[in-house]
Design a protein that fits this description.
It is found in: Cell membrane. The protein is of the alpha+beta class and 261 residues long. Helix content is 25%, strand content 33%. The protein folds into 2 domains: 3-54; 64-259, no CATH class. The N and C termini lie far apart (60 Å).
């Protein structure tokens, strides 16, 4: 139990006992009652700080518990997301909130099927210090805010029930293909929800024409990739986008593939 709650409960019980003793005339004067009440408050505060020194809270353990809870809750979400509805927020437990529907590719995996990008979702949100958010996850009991500052990657974990503001510096981001290392913060998938159009931008320049889909992109999983059978594969270019339409992340279903033009 929280030490502060114990201290408050102790004072309330002590004060209640003093009131009972006064009503039973064991404490005759109000002056004596006032002095004893003040003494009880002082002793309670002293005991509270003594307890903090004698039994310090294990913040590392609490931090680990939060991380474990978050990792467990995120196992089933992979790169699943829902776009934010502007009439009301639509945020599934552990899912990613994308402000203005802008996401960022930050990690490249080289597979037998070509380059597959695990999307690290990005919003346009800037905090008071001007750092740019990379990932924001909002769950029932905790929030994760991953962001970049001066080339280093950090994340803050906030929990409603435990620690608020655990601030952790991550190891530097490693790219699987160094050819893409200069594109950090510069590759964006742009999505116009009103028209269900999606396109790719690098360094703010639109490098592909709009791609029209015959279904709503909500509840979709998006991959960027390249074809290992084409020359562009060796040069590390993205040449296609894959959209998995499924409401359940455990079953991605059949991908819809569109090439960049």
């Amino acid at each position: 139990m929280d030490t502060r709650l114990i201290a408050i409960a102790t004072f309330v019980v002590t004060f209640g006992i003093l009131i009972v003793l006064k009503r039973l005339n064991y404490i005759e004067s109000w002056d004596t009652f006032s002095i004893l009440s003040i003494l009880a408050a002082v002793l309670t505060i002293a005991a509270y700080f003594f307890t903090l020194v004698l039994f310090p809270q294990d913040y590392d353990q609490l931090k680990k518990e939060i991380l474990d809870e978050i990792n467990e809750s995120l196992k089933n979400y992979e790169i699943y997301f829902k776009c934010k509805d502007f009439k009301k927020p639509i945020v599934k437990d552990g899912a990613v909130r994308i402000d203005k529907c802008v996401v960022m590719a930050t990690k490249l995996n080289l597979t037998d099927h070509g380059y597959i990008v695990d999307l690290k979702f990005r919003s346009n949100w800037m905090d008071s210090k001007g750092t740019h958010a990379i990932l924001f996850i909002d769950g029932d009991d905790a929030q994760i805010n991953l962001f970049e500052r001066e080339g280093e990657i950090f994340y803050i974990i906030k929990s409603k029930n435990k620690i608020s503001g655990v601030y952790i510096q991550l190891k530097s981001v490693k790219w699987f293909d160094e050819a893409f290392s200069d594109n950090w913060n510069n590759i964006k998938i742009m999505w116009d929800t009103s028209k269900d159009e999606i396109w790719l931008e690098i360094n703010g320049i639109r490098v592909s024409k709009k791609l029209n889909f015959d279904f709503n992109l909500n509840d979709s999983v998006i991959y960027l990739g390249s074809n290992p059978l084409e020359d562009t594969y060796a040069e590390g270019y993205f040449d296609r986008i894959m959209v998995y339409k499924s409401a359940d992340t455990a079953d991605f279903g059949t991908p819809t593939v569109r090439r960049f033009e």
